[in-house]
Structures are given as C-alpha cells and as structure tokens.
From TrEMBL:
Belongs to the sirtuin family. Class I subfamily. It comes from Penicillium atrosanguineum. GO terms for molecular function: histone deacetylase activity, NAD-dependent; metal ion binding; NAD+ binding; protein-malonyllysine demalonylase activity; protein-succinyllysine desuccinylase activity. This is Uncharacterized protein. Zn(2+) binds at residues 133, 138, 197, 200. It holds the Pfam family SIR2. The keyword Zinc applies.
Length: 296
C-alpha cells in the first residue's frame, strides 16, 4: 500500500521527470527513523536541557563541560545510528543527476555515510566530527574525527540506540547508568579534561554552528552561486520545521527562481500550515518511507 495519494504522486513524478536543477533542504526529521532525536518537539530535551539552549556560544562559555557531554553523547548516538532509506535515495539521486544539490542542516554524518557525493552535499550547520579551537588567535581545525569518546574524560555511560533486547545477553552493565537520564548525576568536568588544541593548548569545541554564529562562508557562497546559475526546477524540503534562519529562507529563494516545492514532513501543522512554506506538494509521513517512494 502506498502512503502517498496517487494523484499527488503522479503529478510529482511528472515534475520530477522533467526536472534537472533540483535542490533539497534537509532537517533533523530525515534522521528520526535512524533513531536520532529532533530538536523541537518530542526528544528535544537532553536531561532537563532544551537542546537548542545548549547549542549556543553562551552555554559553552558558561559550562563547556556540560556542553561537551551533550555533544559527546550526540556523537556517540550518531555513530551508532545507520543511514535510512531516505539518505540512500538522495545519495542515489545525486549520483544519477549531477545538477542535484542537497543542503543539510544536519550534523549527524548520515548523508555522507549513505554515500552522498560530497560535492553535491553542503553542510550548513557543520559536523559533529569537526573540531575547532576556541582561542581567538588560533585557527586550528580538524575534520572527520570519528574517535569516540573524543577524550577519555568524555567516556561516560550512554544509552544504547537500539538496546539489544532486555535479555541477559544484552550488555546491561554499560547501560545501567545513562548520562541522558536526568536522574543520574552528571560529572563536573574541568576545562583541562576537555578536548585540547594540539597547536596552542586552548579549548577545542565542536565544529557546528550555534545560534548567533555565521554559517560557513564557503558553503553559503557555493549555495548562492549554485542558485544564481540557472532556474531551479524543483525543491524538496525534508524533515525540517523551517524555523531556523538562514536555512529556512532557501525555500522561498528557490521558489523565486522558479522552483516548485515538495514538503515532506511528519507533521502537517508544522510546515505546511505556515503560508510562506506552503508547497506545491505536501507529503505527510516518515521521510524514510516517503522519500524513497516519491523518488523511485
Ligand atoms: C519528521 C520526522 C520523520 C520528525 N519524517 N519529518 C529572524 C530572522 C533571521 C534570523 C533570525 C531571526 N531571529 C533569530 C535569528 C537567528 C537564528 C534563528 O534562526 N533563530 C530562530 C530560532 C528564530 N539563526 C542563527 O543564529 C543562525 N546564524 C545566523 O543567523 O547568523 C547571522 C550572522 C551573520 C554574520 C555574523 C554573525 C551572525 C545560526 C543557526 C544555527 C542553528 N544551529 C542548530 C544547532 C547545530 C548544532 C547541533 O546540532 O547541536 O542547528 S539549532 C538546530 O535547529 C540545529 C538544526 O540544524 C536546526 C534546524 O532544526 P530542524 O532540523 O528543522 O529540526 P526541528 O527539530 O526543528 O524539526 C524537525 C522536523 O522534522 C519537524 O518539522 C518534524 O515534524 C519533522 N519530523 N520526525 C519526516 N520521521
Ligand atoms: Zn588552538
């Protein structure tokens, strides 16, 4: 049984067939079926903290140990997670169509791991596996560091993403204390226990974009040039609440460049209910089901 109404699917398929320049904007919802929580709504809390409140320069300044534990946990969970059928379908479309560009707000690394060609995938909010020095005069950065934990002090108990049943054979010991569970105390880490810069011994931070910070300039320039280099046929808006700027703005920009817009989201009130985000198509449901179905 199809999860998408046939009429919509037919008109979309026809548009897709005639489309060359396609832009996709990804948000946390595309990775939900891989077991990773989104930011807003259920799962958007880490311990008692709002995930978006930890994603700020101020939170890191006030308590780098806490923020590093949050990111260490997120890295661990994302490394355990597997890309889903939506990540794979978009990677496949990229290989088939070199004029397809994906801009992702996600830092989880699942699109690259699904084999999405790097030159057709722009990460607007950085990556959990990039690190950068916080010292003002130091330019040290490191990318694709999949070490888990990143330093020994961050080897703290974490929840298993998909616990191996409740049987005695599951690795229950490691799961007895779960750092994401608010009833368990959180270690008070000192700055000297946190990831350090090999160049200047300053504090390293995750290479992600926090609120109030500029998105990577090269990435923005690349996307702008891609947008300006011809009319856009189709835009796919997948699993994002479209509340965070400038990412959310790309949908209207694409529309102004001629794009028809397909929105794929679990929640019809989230995106489609807000007028400027209204798409020509709204496909409601789990992206890991819908995306492969409509791109097939
Ligand atoms: C499913 C599903 C399933 C669930 N299938 N769907 C007014 C105008 C313009 C800007 C601003 C403004 N007011 C404030 C700003 C600035 C601010 C901003 O946008 N704030 C808003 C909240 C109002 N923006 C910024 O600060 C940005 N920088 C900036 O503007 O710089 C200016 C500047 C220029 C020059 C110098 C200096 C500064 C930076 C934004 C950075 C965002 N960072 C984060 C954290 C990244 C690191 C980390 O991961 O920890 O990015 S916040 C968080 O939100 C993360 C996400 O990428 C981002 C977007 O969230 P997303 O992906 O949409 O997730 P959710 O949870 O919101 O939605 C999930 C959706 O999926 C829902 O719709 C579900 O229904 C759906 N879903 N399951 C399909 N299975
Ligand atoms: Zn440094």
């Amino acid at each position: 049984a199809r999860s998408v109404p046939t009429a919509d699917l037919e008109s979309f398929a026809e548009c897709l067939k005639g489309s060359r320049r396609i832009l996709a904007l990804l948000g946390a919802g595309i990775s939900a079926a891989s077991g990773l929580p989104t930011f807003r709504g259920a799962g958007g809390l880490w311990r008692s903290f709002d995930a978006t409140a930890l994603a700020t320069p101020g939170a890191f300044e006030r308590n780098p140990g806490l923020v590093w534990q949050f990111y260490s946990y997120r890295r661990h969970m994302a490394l355990q997670a597997q890309p889903n059928k939506a990540h794979y379908a978009l990677a496949e479309l990229s290989r088939m169509n070199k004029e397809f560009l994906t801009i992702s707000q996600n830092v989880d690394g699942l699109s690259p791991r699904a084999g999405h060609p790097a030159e057709q995938l722009k990460l607007l909010h950085g990556s959990l596996y990039d690190l950068k020095c916080t010292s003002f005069y130091c330019d040290y950065t490191r990318s694709n560091d999949f070490t888990d934990p990143i330093v020994p002090s961050l080897d703290i108990p974490k929840k298993e993403l998909f616990p191996a049943g409740s049987g005695e054979d599951s690795s229950g010991v490691a799961n007895e204390v779960d750092i994401s569970d608010v009833s368990n105390p959180i270690p008070d880490l000192k700055p000297e226990d946190l990831p350090k810069c090999p160049k200047c011994n300053g504090l390293l931070r995750p290479g992600v974009v926090w609120f109030g910070e500029a998105l990577p300039k090269d990435t923005l320039n690349y996307v702008d040039e891609w947008i300006e280099s011809g009319p856009i046929d189709l835009m796919l808006v997948i699993g994002t609440s479209s509340r965070v700027w400038p990412a959310a703005g790309y949908t209207d920009i694409a529309r102004n460049h001629g794009a028809r817009v397909a929105v794929i989201n679990m929640d019809p009130n989230d995106v489609a209910g807000r007028n400027s985000m209204k798409g020509d198509w709204f496909f409601q449901g789990d992206a890991s089901v819908i995306v492969p179905e409509i791109l097939e």
